[in-house]
Amino acid sequence: MTQRKSFGSDNHAGAHPAVLQAMLEANSGDAVAYGADKWTALASAELRQAFRCEGEVFFVFTGGGANILGLSALLSRHGAVICAESAHINTDECGSAERLVGTKLLQVPAPDGKLTPELIAQRLPGSRDEHFSQPGLVALTQSTEFGTCYSLEELRKVYDFCHASGLLVYIDGARLSNAAATLDCDLGDIAECADVLSFGGTKNGAVGAEALIVMRPDTVGSVLYLRKQQTQLASKMRFVAAQFSALMQDGLWRKNAGHANAMARRLADGLHDVPGVSIAYPVQANAVFAQVPPRQIEALQRDWIFETWGESKSLVRWMAAFDTPPADVDAFLADIHATADS
Ligand SMILES: Cc1ncc(COP(=O)(O)O)c(C=O)c1O
To answer: Which of 68, 88, 146 to mutate to test the pocket of ligand 1 (most atoms within 8 A of CB)?
Structure first.
């Protein structure tokens, strides 16, 4: 029997064959190290064009690494970060923003993972008082940790509000491709609403490749040096860069993300008539969060890999990936129906 798909994480997926092929093709003879190679030049140019970036692109290994680099690129020594309580930098990065960047995270409860000008404004009293942490930037996640997605209009409102309030904007784009596929927009349309943002390759079919997009030349400043200090400068950069060229080729990134999103939608659509199961957040990317009776979760986890979320024993996160087969979604749905309360 072929192995069933995990619904635990888009990180459980393997790599897309085109990505592996691109790495194989980059494995031809010697190339100068640390990014002075033709693959890095090509992928940087492709990403700069796609993001309408006038600054620079910096390849790194991990999403957490991109976040740390992005925050440290934008923050002053005394700057603090406003973010949603649910932000990955707050909940899942082992305190690296605090430890490695040396900043304070000013969290805001955001019920669907999305910040608004009103929520950000809650954290502004105290600005320009030396006794308080001084917000320097706002960190958003697109698509969010709850599988929701900012519309372009919502992003624009946040960006304009932030800039009018003297705050810069960082977007954690570990799943930016899922958002762009949902919004049916260019990567550049989202990037217009950020000063610096990350672009995740790993969850989209790469092996371990993320990019930090620094939108304007005046912000590039010290990122070159910070990346090295933060141990994210790849000596054999060509293999990271080649993965991005593969994803950019013929819009593979959008196809992969679109498929993952469609599989999450298929799963969500099949849940409507399951007694005792309800969808917890709008399904706008490749994640389905659902309330499920704990007894049923236990039964399903005998055959399927997925996680309960946060402290709740009844909230689950089901993730689809670029290679999730529709048949596995249907088989999973059949088991959800079979184990439901009658
Ligand atoms: C929203 C978000 N940002 C960043 C990351 C970090 O990525 P990595 O595990 O590659 O450090 C993740 C990983 O799951 C994520 O979901």
So the answer is: 88
